[in-house]
Amino acid sequence: SDYIIYDSAPYLSVAKLQINSLTTVMYDRQKLCTTIGLAVTQLPLLACLLGNDVVSEEHVRQIRNSAVETYRRASPAAYPRAPHGQVVLAVTRLVSTLGSPDGEQTELVPWSLNAPVPLRDLLKKGISSYLLPGQ
Asked: What residues have CB less than 8 Å from 69, skipping those under 6 apart?
């Protein structure tokens, strides 16, 4: 869910809510970032490169395909066809190589992504959509 990308209160899943026991799943951004090797400041770019409400998968298909190609070369056990999980891992690895993961990066879209200006502008719009007022 995109809600884990926002810097806000923890996200509790309504879809996983068990009415009988009143339990659900809580998504933890910090734990997600630790698991995938990204900083929380990199999550909006990851979400945009995977496709979201602002940036369609079609707009970032070339970047994603390139990330999957690179991932396959580095991972000899990769599948011949890229299941969605492999795409997520490949794009995560790409994002981890862009800019500074410590949040000191001043550009919303790192120049090292080498995206054309129209795509950079769209990615900036997508990343900005995850910023809450005052952030």
From this structure: none
